[in-house]
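To the wet lab folks,

You asked to see what we're planning to order before we commit. Fair enough. Below is the target structure as tokens, and below that is the sequence we designed to fit it. If anything looks off to you, flag it before the synthesis order goes out.
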């Protein structure tokens, strides 16, 4: 093994302890890489902390734009929501981080990559499956999986080694944040019967405290990608930031999920994802207007597959490439605008329009101007009902409840 390791460094307790531990246990030079995916914080302080704890080098990579354009938006186009609830913020960031760590390891000539994940979660799987796919020869070290320390012992270790303990370590929660959402676990949340305490929410107002007047927002899409808010063109990062603020103010985007982890356990997870909630809803509303019934039915199945593969760490698979190609193709006419009402925790689509709308007023209306040929209905019903009539005559219609 060469004497260098690239560590994915968050600045938190575990990865700070990991710097020291990698030096002590493996005698490695630690290069700390911190990836900015929109988890607002003081990155120069994070960088300095890595150096103070003992890293030989510390780099911060601004990956917000890449994250949005190459990870978040493809997931939005696919309508990827895990188990109908989780909009996949953490899961989407992992393959990107893996790629950037591999890049750094190559540049630095490091033979190993380290991450701070434990052995119980999904993130270790996502990191390692991705790293192994991108750079099969690189060794992976997972200190928090190896060292066998409890949280308290980790804190003691930090104290013994003069590693500053972040205030977040005194909070019982494990938190991961990026532009697409905030994931919160541990502490009282591990009791699925107890209501999440208000203190865990930092992106969203409680619906009770949200404004008594609704807010409205119009989102413009081009081929499935959101490009405007209230008519104003915005780049992806700014658009998401704007929506996080706006929808968060109205209490939109809180999720309490009894989640099935890849490693087989159920886990209670809380999410805040205001922009993701609004954008996924708006995008689906526009698809409902511009895609045919068959396209929509099939796309819903693809959405489930797509969400699962993101969740399960299979981003760098050819299966993903296949689905992504289908999804992209499906967006050719998904352009137009959606208007949403934001009110006390709810986002509701209240308007949609598109130059490619398949909704036809003259076909749908019950008023004058109706162009639907009602005289054709009996013939349609006659043919449509043919197999049912035939079967009923031969086999009867007796139902289960009669037995
Ligand atoms: N359960 C989510 C996932 O697997 C979130 C994980 C969040 N990680 C954390 N350290 N809090 O994607």
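Sequence we intend to order:
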């Amino acid at each position: 093994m060469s004497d260098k390791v690239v560590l994915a460094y968050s600045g938190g307790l575990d990865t700070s302890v990991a710097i020291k531990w990698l030096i002590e246990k493996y005698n490695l030079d630690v290069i700390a890489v911190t990836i900015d995916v929109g988890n607002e914080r003081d990155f120069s302080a994070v960088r300095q902390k890595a150096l103070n704890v003992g890293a030989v080098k510390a780099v911060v990579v601004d990956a917000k734009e890449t994250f949005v354009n190459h990870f978040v938006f493809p997931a939005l186009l696919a309508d990827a929501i895990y188990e109908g609830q989780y909009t996949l913020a953490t899961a989407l960031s992992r393959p990107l981080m893996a790629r950037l760590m591999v890049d750094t390891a190559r540049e630095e000539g490091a033979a190993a990559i380290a991450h701070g994940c434990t052995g119980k979660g999904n993130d270790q799987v996502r990191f390692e499956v991705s790293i192994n796919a991108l750079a099969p020869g690189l060794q992976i070290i997972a200190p928090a999986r190896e060292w066998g320390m409890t949280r308290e012992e980790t804190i003691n270790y930090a104290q013994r080694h003069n590693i500053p303990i972040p205030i977040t370590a005194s909070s019982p929660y494990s938190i991961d944040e990026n532009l697409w959402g905030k994931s919160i676990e541990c502490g009282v949340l591990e009791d699925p019967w107890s209501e999440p305490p208000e203190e865990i929410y930092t992106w969203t107002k409680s619906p009770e405290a949200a404004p008594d007047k609704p807010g409205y927002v119009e989102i413009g899409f081009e081929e499935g990608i959101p490009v405007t808010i209230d008519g104003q063109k915005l780049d992806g990062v700014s658009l998401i930031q704007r929506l996080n603020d706006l929808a968060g103010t109205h209490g939109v985007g809180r999720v309490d999920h009894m989640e099935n982890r890849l490693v087989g356990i159920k886990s209670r997870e809380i999410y805040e994802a205001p922009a993701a909630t609004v954008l996924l809803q708006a995008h689906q509303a526009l698809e409902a207007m511009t895609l045919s019934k068959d396209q929509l039915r099939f796309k819903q199945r693809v959405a489930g597959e797509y969400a699962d593969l993101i969740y399960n760490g299979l981003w760098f698979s050819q299966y993903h490439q296949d689905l992504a190609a289908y999804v992209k193709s499906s967006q050719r006419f998904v352009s137009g605008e959606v208007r949403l009402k934001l009110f006390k925790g709810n986002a509701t689509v209240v308007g949609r329009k598109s130059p490619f709308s398949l909704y036809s007023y003259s076909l749908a209306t019950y008023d004058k101007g109706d162009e639907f040929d009602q005289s054709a209905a009996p013939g349609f019903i006659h043919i449509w009902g043919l197999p049912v009539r035939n079967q009923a005559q031969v086999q009867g219609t007796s139902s289960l409840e009669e037995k």
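Structural context that might help your review: The two ends are 72 Å apart (CA to CA). The CA atoms of residues 80 and 307 lie 4 Å apart.

Thanks,
Computational group
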